Please model this.
Amino acid sequence: MTEDEIVKAIAALLCHPEPVEGRHRILLGIGDDAALWQPSRSHRSVISTDMLVEGVHFRRETMSLEDAGWRAMAAALSDLAAMGARPVLATVALGVPAAKADAQIVELYRGIAAAARRFEITIAGGDLSRCDLVTISVTVVGEVSNSRAKTRAGGGPGDVLAVTGALGAARAGLELANQPRLMEGANKDAALQAFRRPTPRIAEGRFLGASANVTSMMDCSDGLSTDARRLCAASGCGAVLEAVAVADSAREVAQRLGEDPERFALAGGEDFELLVTVRARAFRYLAGRYEKRFNKKLLRVGALRKGRDLEWRGAPLDRLGWDHFAEGAPRRGG
Amino acid sequence: MTEDEIVKAIAALLCHPEPVEGRHRILLGIGDDAALWQPSRSHRSVISTDMLVEGVHFRRETMSLEDAGWRAMAAALSDLAAMGARPVLATVALGVPAAKADAQIVELYRGIAAAARRFEITIAGGDLSRCDLVTISVTVVGEVSNSRAKTRAGGGPGDVLAVTGALGAARAGLELANQPRLMEGANKDAALQAFRRPTPRIAEGRFLGASANVTSMMDCSDGLSTDARRLCAASGCGAVLEAVAVADSAREVAQRLGEDPERFALAGGEDFELLVTVRARAFRYLAGRYEKRFNKKLLRVGALRKGRDLEWRGAPLDRLGWDHFAEGAPRRGG
Model:
């Protein structure tokens, strides 16, 4: 296929049978030099970019290209969730090896299209290039009313630190993808799903963003110990982690591997749950509404306090999360 | 450096000493999960993504990382120019080898920042990853009033086909980068500049977009023969290429290599000049105003006509331009 033919095939894959809220505002999509859309008058626009690289973020032995496409979308959408924003449109830059490029592009776009349908975002454009390793760069644009946009700054001493769901499942899924015989059952399925088809917490982010009692928000993509530290730095606070919410699947995998389940959650990363700070007096009420709406708990993991330090189990918490460029950083997906 | 430290260093590099028109509308930039901005109420938003890959679009032997950073920005900005849009903000996803990652990231961002300053666009966010080859994905967002946005569709039979500048210089620069001793002088400098530091035609695009007599517009990034074919397909027309505007530098290099200078311009690509169609009766007037404003000519290269074919020198024109995935496609930058 020529490049123009591939673009046509992609456009067909992305074709949506039913119109979705806001989609009519895309005035010009794939096929021209750029896409054109009408931003909402009452909202602010939000943009974020995420990159996935073969051999760094995923390996073909443990993840299909379709899953990798989904994952790249999920990672970018998670940043919109962290701002409390509604997804509008995305662009996708794909680098793909020359051999069997067509088939690889179609497989990647199957996952991209599935995530786009699920989270109601329009793929409005992109670029294709040959590249010896598969690389996927997704840029997402969303909208949020200014009063609802949450940043990492804004938390204050005394605020409750909470997460939208238990952590460590994606890390557990990675272990299981590498050692499929480690265990069987529902926890295995849940962990592999969290690893291969993670869910960006778009609905949860919009719900929490709408509350004036949520003082800061971010996504927990590099592990709680790293991300809580970032939130604290932006908010000018320290924190005590009182409990770490560990996913059942993570607990089971960690135990089978003889590792500390809480460390799995602290260092695992890529769970795409949201980390929020909530005014202490409002936490119980908000958590109640959250549980009613989402049928799961808003999990308290600690509290902000004065100072700069992060404390866990009565001692300063090491940085356990994943850093792309720190020396000796383990390869993810590896 | 850790990832957080690298992000701080990048933010410092991108710090602008003077405020630029529209920059105050960026409400939240680098450092949070996403960037936040206030779109203009009277305008439409435009988005485009471009990807540069080491070994495909550039080689380190012939282009510094600083130039590659500029080039990636220029390629993305050129798509905004092609819509008649004003640049607002960009995000950048960089993949960089682990060895000496810090220094490479800083060098890439020097070029990115220089282009951002020159074309008045704010770098609002991005992502970093290790990758065995340098990959640069740039997403740009711009704005245009709806009546001024130009697409590839809209040209009709009889319209004049014109370009904003002579073609082939970037291709000439590539040849010179590979064979520096081929020639000396002003043409060499111009060609190397066109190859390493190309200029997206933002001002020209905004000027032409404002004219109701410009019926379609696109950027000429894959060679006139490929891009004119795309414009014709979108506009449902054929075209006759009467003359090909060849840059002086391209003419000199082609002659020294014993090649046809017009083929250089037809197939060369990456010149980032704009290709426009103009209502025939208005062309002379518009070209006069263009020359007065930009001190260079709007160059007539042919005319649209009924049918589907592209004709050059009295015969159907082969597809000479560059296609990323066509079999036997030459490696660019190579």
